[in-house]
């Protein structure tokens, strides 16, 4: 049965291609292409909260992305079942949402947000680095890079991962300094223009938060799924790791003005820690948060062009309040702890040292001409035009590293008795 929710505008690809005898939908193709990329496989060794490989049961970027995808698909099925707006031939495509969820962290570098901050600082003179902007770069240009067209995604798929719609230079002009995050690269303006079908933002969509808040329904579902997954599951991992205990939760609650005997989010968490069933409790909350989703109609400058802009996702305020508490708890008790900050410092140090070595060798071309990168990467850096483009390609190489491969690369360059000629790059 044809799904009337989507039209040709939604399904159009960056470059027209012959579907031939394709038995899959356009969005199933998007999803499958993501799954079969090295960038997706690399997420298994990239940090979610704790360094990948530290213990087998902690979440990585890969397992997190799979959980986000499951939540996203479930929200689509729930909305189709529960919303009077949708029907059997008019619904939000779960394959499309799954593709967006699986792809949403592809651009994140090694060592989590610490790595993102490091690369952004190193790229400050060349347009910055942002994990979501890097995801867009991979999908449109770097995945299957021989073709120089990325994975040739559909418009709806690109829009479903385009969390930020403000250019780096726009934020520089707005704040008179380089932004920390929440931007796309200036060279990606053409993709933003393509996503919107050449339409300009109305004047009220000012650069920054107002513009970034304009999101398709698939992006809204992906973002809520992401919030749900990391807010609940990061807490569960932190309990297992010993960062979150009954005593620390009670102390944190008192210092932040919460009554942990009455606040449902904290009361449930403390009870689950004492009983040793935090995973079960969080799984039940995920189900409740899925069922807390509903749709309302919206009107904007794109709602007549695509149904993807015609609706907003609405959440139960109680669920939103719970997630805010868990986010705040995780940030202040776990992410800001000396133990994690020391690991982040180490990750920052590793990436800066790797950058300095490779920048000196391939861009400044100082010192001996050792072959430190694979031949195709080295050739691309050496033959591309401007300094900014060279630095962007170098940044691509470092961002694609996993936690483990970055650490091994650093040690092979600096530790005399580490590594051998048989090591993989």
Short characterization:
The chain is mostly helical. The protein contains 20 helices and two strands.
CATH homologous superfamily heading of the largest domain: Hypothetical protein af1432
Number of strands: 2
- The level 1 CATH classification of the largest domain is Mainly Alpha
Low-confidence sequence ranges = none
Strand arrangement in the largest pleated sheet = 1-2
Gap from first CA to last CA: 48 Å
The overall pLDDT, averaged over residues, is: 92
Note the beta-strand portion: under 5%
> Would you give the CATH topology of the largest domain?
Hypothetical protein af1432
Largest sheet: 2 strands, antiparallel
How many separate structural domains? 3
- Summed up, the helix count is 20
The helix fraction, in percent, is 55-70%
- Morphology: globular
Which architecture of the largest domain would the CATH scheme give at its second level?
Orthogonal Bundle
Q: Write down the Rg.
A: 22 Å
Structural class: mainly alpha
């Amino acid at each position: 049965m044809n799904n009337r929710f989507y039209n040709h505008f939604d399904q159009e690809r960056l470059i027209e291609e012959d579907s031939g005898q394709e038995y899959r939908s356009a969005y199933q193709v998007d999803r499958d292409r993501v799954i079969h990329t090295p960038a997706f496989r690399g997420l298994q060794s990239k940090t979610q909260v704790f360094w990948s490989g530290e213990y087998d049961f902690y979440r990585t970027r890969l397992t997190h992305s799979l959980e986000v995808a499951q939540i996203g698909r479930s929200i689509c099925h729930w909305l189709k079942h529960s919303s009077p707006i949708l029907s059997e031939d008019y619904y939000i495509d779960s394959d499309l949402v799954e593709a967006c969820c699986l792809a949403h962290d592809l651009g994140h570098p090694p060592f989590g947000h610490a790595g993102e901050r490091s690369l952004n600082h190193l790229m400050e003179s060349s347009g910055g680095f942002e994990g979501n902007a890097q995801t867009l770069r991979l999908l449109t240009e770097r995945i299957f890079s021989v073709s120089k067209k990325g994975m040739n995604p559909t418009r709806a798929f690109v829009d479903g991962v385009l969390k930020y719609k403000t250019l780096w230079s726009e934020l520089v002009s707005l704040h008179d300094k380089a932004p920390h995050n929440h931007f796309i690269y200036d060279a990606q303006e053409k993709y933003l223009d393509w996503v919107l079908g050449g339409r300009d933002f109305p004047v009220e969509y000012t650069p920054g938060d107002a513009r970034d808040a304009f999101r398709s329904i698939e992006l809204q579902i992906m973002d809520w799924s992401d919030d749900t997954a990391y807010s609940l599951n990061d807490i569960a991992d932190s309990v297992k790791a010993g960062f979150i205990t009954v005593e620390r939760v009670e102390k944190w609650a008192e210092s932040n003005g919460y009554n942990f005997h009455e606040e449902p989010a904290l009361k449930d968490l403390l009870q689950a820690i004492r009983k040793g069933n935090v995973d079960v409790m969080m799984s039940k909350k995920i189900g409740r948060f899925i069922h807390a989703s509903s749709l309302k109609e919206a009107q904007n400058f794109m709602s007549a062009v695509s149904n993807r802009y015609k609706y907003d996702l609405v959440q139960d305020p109680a669920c939103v309040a719970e997630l805010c508490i868990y986010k705040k708890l995780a940030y202040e008790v776990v992410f800001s702890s000396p133990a994690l900050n020391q690991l982040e410092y180490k990750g920052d140090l590793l990436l800066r040292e790797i950058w300095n070595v490779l920048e000196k060798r391939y861009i400044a071309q100082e010192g001996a001409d050792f072959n430190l990168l694979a031949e195709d990467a080295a050739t691309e850096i050496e033959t591309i035009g401007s300094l900014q483009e060279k630095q962007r390609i170098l940044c691509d190489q470092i961002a694609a590293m996993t936690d483990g491969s970055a650490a091994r690369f650093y040690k092979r360059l600096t530790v005399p008795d580490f590594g051998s000629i048989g090591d993989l790059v």
